[in-house]
Structures are given as structure tokens and as C-alpha cells.
Amino acid sequence: NYHFSELDPKPYYTTNILIHIANTILVFFLIVLLCRRLKIGEAGILFIAGFGALWFGVHPMRVESVSWIAERKDVLYAFFYFAGMLTYLQYIKGDAKRWLWYIATYLLFVMSCLSKPMAVVFPFSILCLDLLMSRKWNLVSQIGEKTIFFLTSLACGMMAFYTQNKTGAVADFGTLTIGERIMYAAY
Questions:
Q1: What is the pLDDT of residue 171?
Q2: What average pLDDT values come out for the chain (187 residues) when binned by 10 residues?
Q3: What is the CA 168 to chain-centroid distance, rounded?
Q4: Contact between residue 20 and residue 62 where contact means Cβ atoms under 8 Å apart
Q5: Among 86, 131, 140, which residue's Cα sits nearest to residue 109?
Q6: DSSP codes of every residue in 127-146
């Protein structure tokens, strides 16, 4: 962005808006794929997905990140996170290109983590997708399949904690009360 616009804020906002629109579209398709297993009909699925995507698109927590130029990391992390979930759903379908979907899922997860460390929860999200899609559980294959995701998540989480601790962004435990910590988590 800086290469093309330097200090003009309009292109930064425009880019954030375009990424947010892409995120809203990804949320729509994610909801469609998750609702397909319900027996509610295509019109019902499209209504639920449309409403969910609309709610995501206008929610103040999402719009805040779009309007704040410094929060580009949030819209980027969400883009890669949702795209990773969609590719994971393609992976568990079990078609001929199955391992390409697996590699794409992993790469999108890494890009999401590089955008914002909050993406470290992605392995838990794909475990939830396994449960939601009634995927057959084989403990050995599940551990083997998810190990790289959990190891990457652990490495990214440790790196984020280290860098934030070095810059003073991590408060000592006695700085905040338990109630304040709960309030931060609730926010």
C-alpha cells in the first residue's frame, strides 16, 4: 500500500474495505458448506448464510478493524483463517486432490498466524469442523494429521508471547485483578 499511496489514507481504507468484503463472502460460503448437512433446503441455507455473512459484515467489532488503518492485521488474519477453514472442508471431503487441500490449509493457517498471532486457535477450529461434519475419528490419523498444525500454533504462540513480553505489552500478573482479566477476556 505504501509503495503506491505513501501517506494518502484513502487507498489504505479501500484495501481494508476490499479485504473485509472478501471476508464477508468467505463467511457466506463457510456457512453454506456447514449448513449443507442440515435438512432445511437450499433457500433456508442461503437465508442463514446470508444473514450470518451480513451480521459478520456489519458487526462493530469487525467494522472497527476495517476503519482503523493500523488494524490491517485483523482483516488479513481473518481472510486467511476463513480461507483455511474452507480448504479444510474440501480436504475432509476426501476427493482426488485431497493432499493439495491439506497443504493449502496449512499454508493459509501459517499466513493467518503471520498476520496476527490470534490465529493460533486454528487447530482447535478444524477439530470442531471434524466434529461438526461427523468425521470418523481414528485417533492415530487425527494426531498425525493435526500435529503440524498444533506444533506451528505452539511455535507462533511462543514467538508472539516472547516479542510482546520484550516490548512490555505483557503485564505482570499482579498488575490486573482477576475481575479486570475477566473483563478483558469478555471484550
A1: 66
A2: 85 93 97 89 94 94 86 94 97 88 97 95 93 81 88 94 79 77 81
A3: 26
A4: yes
A5: 86
A6: HHHHHHTTPPP-HHHHHHHH
How far is the C-alpha of 59 from the C-alpha of 74, rounded, in Å?
14
Task: Please give the model's pTM, rounded to 2 decimal places.
Answer: 0.87
In eight-state DSSP terms, residue 69 is G
Rounded CA gap, 29 and 52, in Å?
Answer: 10
CA 80 to chain CA centroid, nearest Å: 6
The answer to whether the beta carbons of residues 105 and 127 sit under 8 Å apart is no
d(Cα 123, Cα 110) in Å, to the nearest integer?
11
- 39's grid cell: 435438512
Start-end of H helices in 36-138: 42-58, 60-67, 72-93, 98-115, 122-132
Taking alpha carbons only, the member of 112, 53, 39 closest to residue 78 is 112
CB atoms within 10 A of CB 137: 9
pLDDT at 35 (0 to 100): 92
